[in-house]
Structures are given as C-alpha cells and as structure tokens.
Design brief:
The protein has a domain of 164 residues: Response regulator (Rossmann fold, 3-Layer(aba) Sandwich), CATH 3.40.50. It contains 19 helices and 19 strands. The chain is 34% helix and 19% strand. The chain is globular and about 75 Å long.
Length: 557
C-alpha cells in the first residue's frame, strides 16, 4: 500500500469527494482506532432506602440559588405538595447550594448526612448542572444517604453518561419540561426513595471496560471517511487516514513512548490518554509530526480538570489555544497577518486536533454530552502564536512564570462573546464594550503589534495596559447584580467560596456596595494582553476568555 502524506491524503479525499465513484484500483487503508475508553470504574452501591417517608426528613437540594430560575420551580412545587399528600408526616427541607453547582461542598453533604433520611437533587435546564448534580448525588449515595436526581428529558443521555462515569447507579427521574404533570413525577420520586436497591444497584468494586479494537477498519478513503463520520469520530471535515505508517511517523515527533499516559482525565468523560492516541488523532487532523509536542502539551493542559463544565455546557463554549516560544518558528506557525486564520497549516491542524481529542479521547458526542445549544464556530480551530518578535513587551509565557526560551501552550475557555477589530489604541472603548459581556470572568485582549508599540511608546507596560482595561471595564453595582450569572457564580465567590480552585476573584466588599457604585467587573488577575497579527494597522479585539491553563511543550519533545 502506498503511504500518502498528510497533505496529499487530505487533497485526495477532497478530490474523491468531488469526482464521485471510486476507481477499482484505489488503495486500501488499514487505519488505527482513534477512540479512547474508560478502562476501570469503581462501582459504588446505592444506599439503603427507608420503606416509608412518613416521619422522615427529606432534603430538596437545589443546584442553583433560590432567586435564579432553574426551570424546575413549578415541577418542584407540585412534587412537594404531592409528597406531603402521599406522606402526611414527611418533612421537606429546601436547601440551596451555597457554592456554584460544579463545586464540591463537604459542609452541605455533611449536613444532609446528619439531618436527612433521603434527598431529592434538583439541577436546571443546563447540561453541566445536570452532570454535576448526578456527580454529587453519587457522592451522597456513597456516604449512605439515599436519593434521586431530576433531569430534563432533553438531557437524559447526558445524565446517563455521568451516572456511568461516577460508578454509582444514581436513580434518575426524567422531566418532560417545566409544565410536566407533577403527579407522575411525585410517584416516581416516592418509588425511587423507598424501593430497596436491586441486585444491579448493589454491585461494588472495580469494573473494566473492554478496550476498543486496535484497528478500526480497512478500506478505501471514502469508506474510512464514512466510517469515521457515522461513528462520531470526526468534526465533520475530511480526515487523514491514521494508518500505522502515518502514526509511526507522527510518533517520531516525540521521544516519549507510545503507551505513556499524557493525562488521566480527558474531558468530558475523564478518560486516560496515551501518546499513541494523541498521535492517531493528530494524523487525522492533518498535523505534521513536528507539532506532536504541542499536541501532547495541549492534551496535558486540557486534562487538568478545569474544562469539564465548559465542554459539557449548553453555553456553546469554544477554546482558545495560544502558543509561545521557539516552537513557533520551528513548526512554522503564523503569528502575523491572518494569525487567527485560516491559511496556516500548523495553526489550523493544531487548532482542529483539540476538537478531535474531545470527541475521541474524551468520549464527547454532540447532543449527548456535548450540549452547546447553538454551537460555536471557534470550536473548529482557534489556535495561533503570539507575535513575540514584534511585541514591545515580554511574551505571554514569561508573564505566566516561564522563561522566554521556553515553549508553552495556554488554553482558555469561553469564546461566545468578542468585540473588535478596533482601530488604534482606544483602550477605554474596548473596556466599555467588554464590560457588557455576560459572566465577565476573563478577558483576553488581542493587540496588533502597531497598537502595542504605540502604547509602549506612550510609556505603558503590558501590566499597565491590563490594569487600564480592568479599571475601565466597569458597571454600576445595579447593572452587575442584574447580570444573568451574578447570583449563580459571583455571589458564592464574594462569600469566600472557591471556583476551579480559586478564591477571592472579586472583593467581598461588592456584596455591600450601593447600587450606584461603579466597580470593575473582571477579576484583576483574569485580564490578559496578547500581541498577535500583522503590522499593517493598529487594531485590537477583546474576547471573553478565562481559566488560562498553561502547559510546557518542551517536556514532550
């Protein structure tokens, strides 16, 4: 079989798609399986159930705050009334989670264990909230507290995938919508809380999934493409067949062994990832072997645990990948004109590979556990290099604590809001526009070299520019409090709760300021400046991006 290089194979795929029926003498491709898998889950049995809820305290745990609509309000009101009719001596306690839905809350779990005979967990019309509600329900079951978790019917597969991942057969009740009849739901909840666990629900110990076959199939280019499309292994674009020869060539881009673990928890399903699986998906994306260290570092960064909610969310996140250091010129990345693409092979294929990683190495599937309501065009390929040579300031990796000679990749989440291009260095206008982004948790300002150099000539450092943007991206407290996400996320943080391992992102004083007080809406440490683009004009744009996670590339050479 003739081995076709990555660019040649992609060109041939496109040509075949355009010309129709395949030739009889077309080569056959024996392709490796790009799919990861969950090798072992520890099964945790359900807690014992009370036979009767009369005289029992049942906690109704709400994932969202009391004054934020979750979509379940009418249903819960009807269910609580129905339970009181069915069990006249039941005592229902509505308890709203003090921290964001994604955060562990040991104090609340201890309270439920101490005071409740059972619990009902109420999520929201949100895929990420559903995932975490099933996760925390599994934790409570493991602590010996029996419960049931609601979910909207449209998120049923998302709930089922999470239940399988956590290893606890959490009992689920599907709700057709906010106006679903409460009587039937009440009966299902009552049954879930009182019926003793069956044999399948009392299994315990490790269970191991059989790994997928090493060879996915052998066939023509069209057959390979069709198979990968139909099995949800692609982003919808043509792929390069990951033959053993092509993957072997890709593996030459790193000294690390093919069975080495890159991350043990690739989202959304938390699967471990080997070097070879990264290489397989890198070939599919069309990436060159020289990019292999960047791909491995991207998987390491993405598997850090900070992106689980973003990947599963109904909010249609995208992920920005920023590359810094000598690797930029080594693999021919574009940091200048049209750096955000399209048109550069390295930028495009590294950017594209992340989406394949999410599908194949993390178990993502659109409409199942990837629930972005509208999707995001930035999910195809959003990767570029910083224009360090044209920047008057230290490059981003130095700001992050690395050396200038270090190569790094930084991944940000967000991407549903942006503004620009804006001419010249009007930082106040940029700050004004980005202040109105929803959930203002992070800002990445992309400055062209001309803009950056003009600002530098005026005496401003990069830190000065970041401070200027932070200080001028303001709202009145009344406007800030009316933001859709203020009650869900910001209030718990103001009260000292962590989010993604970080506390005190905003001053606690915000809680008591008058409505007309004007305040910066971004956490001070989450405003970042990056110099990128050509030198023809002074432009800039701002992106709603946060959760910067940086991984070293050089360790993966």
């Amino acid at each position: 079989m003739r081995l076709v290089g990555s660019r040649g194979a992609l060109a041939l795929l496109l040509a075949l798609a355009a010309t129709g029926p395949l030739r009889a003498d077309e080569p056959s491709y024996r392709v490796l399986n790009p799919r990861g898998y969950q090798p072992e889950t520890t099964l945790v049995p359900l807690a014992a159930r009370p036979g009767d809820l009369n005289g029992k305290v049942v906690y109704v745990v709400h994932a969202w705050p009391a004054n934020v609509p979750s979509g379940f309000e009418t249903v819960v009101t009807g269910v609580e009334a129905g339970l009181k009719t069915k069990f006249p001596d039941i005592r229902l306690v509505d308890r709203y989670k003090d921290s964001a839905y994604s955060e562990d809350e040991p104090e609340l779990w201890a309270e439920v264990k101490q005071k409740a005979a059972a619990f009902i967990y109420v999520p929201a019309d949100s895929a990420a909230t559903t995932m975490w509600s099933v996760t925390w329900s599994g934790k409570l079951e493991g602590m010996g507290v029996p419960g049931v978790t609601l979910h909207f019917a449209a998120l049923a597969e998302n709930a089922e995938r999470t239940r399988a991942k956590v290893g606890t057969p959490v009992r689920l009740v599907s709700v057709a919508g906010s106006s679903a009849p409460a009587a039937d739901i009440t009966d299902q909840i009552a049954k879930a809380l009182t019926t003793p666990p069956g044999a399948a629900e009392t299994r315990a110990g490790p269970v191991r999934e059989a790994p997928p076959p090493r060879i996915a199939l052998e066939g023509s280019l069209a057959q390979v493409q069709t198979y990968f499309d139909e099995h949800h292994r692609t982003d919808g674009l043509p792929i390069v067949p990951p033959t053993e020869e092509a993957v072997a060539a890709m593996l030459k881009g790193t000294r690390h062994g093919k069975d080495e673990i890159v991350t043990r928890a690739m989202v959304p399903e938390g699967w471990p990832v080997t070097v070879e699986k990264v290489a397989i998906n890198g070939v599919m994306a069309g990436a060159p072997p020289s990019a292999m260290p960047v791909l491995l570092a991207a998987v390491e960064a993405f598997g850090s645990g900070h992106f689980a909610s973003s990947v599963r969310s109904t909010n249609s996140f995208s992920f920005m990948q920023l590359v810094n250091g000598p690797i930029i010129s080594e693999i021919g990345m574009n940091a200048g004109t049209y750096a955000l693409g399209p048109g550069n092979h390295a930028n495009a294929t590294i950017g594209r590979a992340l989406r394949l990683f999410i599908y194949n190495l993390g178990g993502g599937e659109n409409g199942v556990n990837l629930m972005g309501t509208q999707g995001n065009v930035g999910s195809y390929a959003f990767c570029f290099a910083e224009n360090e040579a044209a920047s008057p300031w230290e490059p981003f990796q130095v700001t992050r604590g690395f050396r200038r000679e270090d190569s790094t990749i930084t991944i940000f989440a967000g991407g549903w809001s942006h503004t620009g291009n804006m001419l010249h260095q009007d930082l106040k206008r940029l700050a004004r526009d980005v202040a109105y982004f929803q959930w203002p948790s992070g800002l990445v300002a992309l400055l062209s070299p001309a803009t950056a150099n003009e600002l530098a000539k005026s005496g401003m450092s990069k830190a000065d520019v970041e401070r200027e943007l932070w200080q001028n991206a303001t709202l009145t407290m009344s406007e800030f409090r009316n933001d859709h996400y203020y009650q869900r996320f910001i209030i718990p943080i103001l009260k000292g709760k962590e989010m993604n391992g970080v506390k005190n992102r905003w001053p606690a004083s915000y809680l008591n300021l008058p409505d007309d007080a004007r305040v910066p809406v971004y956490p001070k440490n989450d405003v970042h400046v990056v110099v990128v683009g050509g030198e023809a004009n002074a432009m800039m744009q701002g992106w709603n991006m946060y959760g910067a996670t940086t991984a070293p590339i050089d360790k993966w050479r």
